[in-house]
Design brief:
- Helix 1 (24-31) crosses helix 3 (48-66).
- A hairpin with an 8-residue loop joins strand 7 and strand 8 (167-173).
- Helices cover 33% and strands 27% of the residues.
- It has 5 helices and 8 strands; from the N terminus they run ββαααβββαβαββ.
- The longest helix has 19 residues, at 48-66.
- The N and C termini lie far apart (30 Å).
- It comes from Christiangramia forsetii.
Amino acid sequence: MQLENYKSFETERLLIRPTSLDDAEFIFQLLNSPKWLQNIGDRNICSIKDAEKYISAKMHTQLTRLGFSNNTVIRKSDQRKIGTCGLIDREGLDSIDIGFAFMPEFEKMGYAFEAASVLMKAARNEFKLKELSAITLEENTGSRNLLKKLGFEFQEKIKIPNDPKELMLYYKEL
């Protein structure tokens, strides 16, 4: 897949670009981190090969269809892959979902706010979206606080297909 045909974004500290198959080892680590498993859920990514299949099936399929998907977030100062942030067409939601996840050692440094802020601007200006959704578990106070800081408002508790957990749905007009 020619990822250079799709938009990447930059902030002062971050490069945010479409996730590639070269990111499979990082995606494997992130999706198996304790906080991912606790707050997002087990995606059954048991090997780097599974991560490659996940990237192709979930991320690249949507990227081809809509022009946006999940992105790998890279810290410019050392080129370290630190997390993901993306715009996701999620089953069970009426609008595109903004999602983010960072390796534990990169939390509470403002990276998620920085990445999500630039993607929200792109959602409005580049992709012409009028609104965004966000979902999180009630006990995930870090995500809930970040969503509030980004200007999202809590709407209701919901369940989405293939996820037994009750989620808090947030919404923001762009």
